[in-house]
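Regression check, cytidine-5'-monophosphate case 236:
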Amino acid sequence: MSRKPIIALDFPTRSEAEIFLKQFKNEHLYVKVGMELFYQEGVSFIKWLKEQGHDIFLDIKCHDIPNTVYRAMKVIAGLDVDMVNVHAAGGREMMKAALKGLEEGTPSGKNRPVLIGVTQLTSTSEEQMQQEQLISGSLKESVLHYATLTYESGLDGVVCSALEASEIVDVTSEHFLRVTPGIRMLGDKVHDQKRVVTPGKARSIGSTMIVIGRSITQAEDPLSAYQKAKKEWELE
Ligand code: C5P
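Current build output:
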């Protein structure tokens, strides 16, 4: 599996995403397409990205009854994306259904897309979790609990903060992927992220894949920002 930094294509339209990608010339990237761009531009944009040779993380965070998620994942497997995610809060049965859908929907000769779980959203505070979700205990305990549930359901990994990565290994396995956003190069603007680390630090504290958005998409020179992040990520 490709372990290059994943660039979050957080653009509202395909034309803006294409203008951005033109700067990378013939470089084969790993890009993350989220709900905004996918709902706007749909399957044809995914196909176009694949034709350009890019790997794709489809970040649509499915969460529904097991049968619906199973059927959705069967369709998604046919899109030839490389990674997709579901909310661990959907439960063991839903996560297993997601995996089954991907396995059954993957065309022969292709690899099943990697399936990862979302634990607690980073926008959820401990107080909010306790009051709104009625989960007692700490946010960290809930993240580790969901990571364990995701692992036991047979998924390939979780989305988490790099700062949680080593504790997730402790409750799962070294082979369980830790896909981490919240990455910034030294001196970059932090924006709305609360806890950020550099690509090198992420590697050294246990991330297996990193997701970088604005540090690249809003850089003066996105190609050199990407190359710098990639070099730091690969060297450490
Ligand atoms: O611009 P920035 O590097 O902060 O973008 C990070 C990307 O990762 C965004 O697309 C954001 O939605 C996503 N993400 C995140 N934190 C999570 C899950 C996803 O920042 N816990």
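Comparison notes: The beta strands are 6-8, 30-34, 55-62, 83-87, 114-118, 157-159, 177-180, 209-212. The chain is about 45% helix and 15% strand. No diff flagged against the previous build.
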